[in-house]
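Sample intake — AP-1 complex subunit gamma
Collected from: Ovis aries
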Amino acid sequence: MVASSLKLQDLIQEIREAKTQAQEREVIQKECAHIRASFRDGDPLHSHRQLAKLLYVHMLGYPAHFGQMECLKLIASPRFTDKRVGYLGAMLLLDERQDAHLLITNSIKNDLSQGIEAVQGLALCTLSAMGSAEMCRDLAPEVEKLLLQPSPYVRKKAVLTAVHMIRKVPELSDIFLPPCAQLLHERHHGILLGTVTLITELCERSPAALQHFRKVVPQLVHTLRTLVMTGCSTEHSVSGVSDPFLQVQILRLLRILGRNHEESSETMNDLLAQVATNTDTSRNAGNAVLFETVLTIMDIRSAAGLRVLAVNILGRFLLNSDRNIRYVALTSLLKLVQSDHSAVQRHRPTVVECLWEPDASLSRRALELSLALVNSSNVRAMTQELQGFLESCPPDLRPDCASGILLAAERFAPTKRWHIDTILRVLTTAGTYVRDDAVANLIQLIGGAQELHAYSVRRLYSALAEDISQQPLVQVAAWCIGEYGDLLLEGTCEETEPLQVEKEEVLALLERVLQSQMSLPATRGYALTALMKLSTRLHGDNNRICQVMSIYGSCQDVELQQRAVEYNALFRKYDHLRAAVLEKMPLVERGGPQVDEEAKESKEVAQLSEAAPVPTETQASKLLDLLDLLDGPSENAQHPPPLDPTPGDTLIHLLDLPCAPLPPAPIPNLKVFEREGLQLNLSFVRPPGTPTLLLITVTATNTSGGDVTHFICQAAVPKSFQLQLQAPSGDTVPAQGGLPMTQLLRILNPNKAPLRLKLRLTYDHFGQSVQEIFEVNNLPVETWQ
């Protein structure tokens, strides 16, 4: 049986010549039977050939687990040909989930102790590919000895194995600290690249290692300067850029070493400026080095001029023909817009041009950045650009674009008329894509601007006459015509073109809305109510309105039927009360836009600061106190004891008419997450002017020894709520109790229903990516009652 076994080349040829999958399976099953028989017979001369064939079968996706023990036998063999195939089989067929992998620990230890470079290389490759935590702990001393071997081949593989060990067992970092300092003096490209990678892993996982390697920053700066200015061997140059892989790895390490450390950042400032100005950007390798330089500049405590240079580099990336580079630039600028807003503003025209990119991912990222760049000084120009983009953007971008324009107009509107015009244009262009609260917000805005009632009703009437397909626009127009229909017929508005409208035309337009197949039940309710209100706003006969109400008194929609029946009752039984019942709506009190709230809060903070003496304290504590004042009272603050409501005191308070109402009781803070030193707390504020609005400040603190980077907090609420996430204060939570990261959540709860919150956290901590999804159901009742 063994004699008829095929050679590896013949097996490959026969498998390739199989016409069907059934023929291929037949060939493989027959050969696997020969391989099993050979393993049972224990043929030492041909075992490595049989295992090589089995590995090829494994690569094709067929089961090969019966060859695991044969791998162990070949690894223990003294012949190099057997060891080579045995180690290859171990890397392919074994992993740490199987107990059999522990059986080769002793063989690897013996091979590492030999002086044969090829055998040591095989053992190190296998250990770095499938070594478990137990194997790493047992073999770490042997690997540490090989780091200082004279052979560059063995040292390079030992460094890579050490990287794997640190990732598996971070507590082994103390063993590899001493050799790393010596290996940094290496001239060999592979060893130096592996050493920088090893130091990076050590610094990300050990605060002690981070402090230790900050001493080698000058040496790393010298190495990188040599690469940039004089270059290295042409063997490792890519497109004229000297060893870009080593440059990128050194820049990543410098970013870790310089983060939150003034002295190290100062040492590397000049070097980063040299790299940023001397790197060739005509090739992709140079762009990679330059982008890593920008990330390093932004992550350390660099000079202000250097940060502006980094933003300008990203601005040049926006002009690159490569879409990937443009996407990276937009993503990086979006992260920097909070910390370096003025520098990013200089590239606003280029960002706006990226809106019309055919690539959907580029267009979406450009939209997010454009909305983040809107402020009070450029709101008119930016809104005009965004409205032009809204008219031609893909359907999947319209909801985000429309909502972003409405939010920007609410925050930075220069005048109420401009605000109304902006919302009307959005509703006309993409009314079906706007948020659910857009109708209520515009009604409140128009109702509060008495001087613009005539202007608004004329604009809305003209827009409604042209298009009744945009349901939010139709609802606002119907409400406005019902409230201010008398102003529509007067024709006294000087701010619009002369418009002569007759009563019959207005009634016909509302009837058209009622009869349209595109009208939603809610839209028909608006139109029905508008017709009823016009019976008191417009002079003349109301028979036409009564007829419409009679028709809808038998409507299949229960809501419309109930309205029509009640309105008919007003006409027939309570006609003397109809004028009083249908009077104009009073001004709706609403919370001002976010700018007004922030200004009010800032004014209160200033008054508190003037009233109480401020003790001398550090800048960090001042910032924390400021956050406490804005977010709510601190837990340690002392409150006056409540007054005893005795009858005498009650009478005194009743007589004391000018007294102000008591402020609402503070809502207690809530800790919702804690893991490895990272803690997430929620603080709550309900503005007195808008009781349905809840402001939640998410505060992330970090007491561990390593920074939490790329921190993203996302939230979701039930459909009956409306959630708006403000931009966070940053994406890094500094280690050892540094300044916290904060993010504001605005939740609108019109029904005052019990609040449930679902949070998703993604971040990097100690070199590992973490994602947590959890639900918060224990929110204080004060947040929604």
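Post-analysis note: Residues 591-661 have pLDDT under 50 and may be disordered.
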